[in-house]
Amino acid sequence: MAKFIGVRHVGLPAKNIAPLKAFYTDVMGMVVMRESNADGPFGVTLFMTSHPDKEDHEVVFFQTMPELAHTAVEVESLADLKKFYREIKERGIPIKYALNHGNSFSFYFDDPEGNMLEVYWPIYVRFLQNYAEPIDFDLPEEELMRVVDQVTKQFGTPIPTMPKMAKFIGVHHVGRWGKNLATLKAFYTDVMGMSVQRESPPEASFGSSLFLSSHPDKEDHEIVFFGTKPELAHTAFKVASLVLRSSLALSFLPAKPIGRICLLCL
What are phi and psi of 165, to 5 degrees? Predict the structure, then answer.
């Protein structure tokens, strides 16, 4: 049923980039891919990844443009991106941005509660600066591929081989506050093609919740909404072993960057 491969990165609002950079490099073992100042197309930003040879970024922070916070899902091909784009338009859902990022083609839209979603198709080339040019995904695939060739030849650099520092596999799932779980359930099952894994009532330990997955045979959940306990919103990173999770948990004790929960799961 799913129309995408999975959740690949999250964009989060930031109050102060500097301590977040220190935390995610030192505690989480992530690599800074690029940064930008207030003059950049997205304002002050910090792009980070756990595996620079595979993912351009898994967490991005927006300091001066917090409205750009989003959850990004990856599609398998340019054809899948165009098909998804067409479906969203046919449903009458406004497209907020349709962009050529140089290392990806992306389009953005909101769910019923204003949570922005990005659907993207990756282009495996590294960009040293943020890049965003409007693009029309109604163009033929052949023409879009010519754009890929032109931009990568002009601006892109080969993906470098970098030392593996990360202490986890990658972003696993995101937890968000949901004002109306029924509306969100309808949107994410119908529009996004996700499956409901489980739900809970307000009296449950997590309060009212909705757990969704794009591939229930592989991932228990990729997005979870909390209806009555918004303080449980989080970003989850997956580790390879129980031993690694235990060692990392110790390093989390003194670190609380702007009150955001980082969850480690096996």
Answer: -110, -20
Do 49 and 74 lie in one domain? The reply is: yes
pLDDT tens-digit map of 116-128: 999 999 987 777 6
Q: Please, what sign has the CA dihedral across residues 164, 21, 167, 57?
A: negative
Cα within 13 Å of Cα(87), Cβ side? 12
Expressed as residue numbers, the domain containing 254 is: 170-265
Residue ranges of the chain whose pLDDT lies below 70: 1-2, 128, 156-168, 241-266
Helix (H, G, I), strand (E, B) or coil at 175: strand
Residue with tokens 């757990």: 211
CA distance 86 to 44: 32
Q: Which long-range contacts (CB under 8 A, 24 or more apart) does 238-246 make?
A: 238/168, 238/169, 238/170, 238/171, 238/172, 238/264, 238/265, 238/266, 239/167, 239/168, 239/169, 239/264, 239/265, 239/266, 240/168, 240/169, 241/266, 242/266, 244/167, 244/168
Q: Which of 37, 103, 114, 24 is nearest to 69 (CA)?
A: 114
pTM recorded for the entire structure: 0.86
Q: Is residue 1 part of a domain?
A: no
Distance between CA 198 and CA 172 in Å, rounded? 17
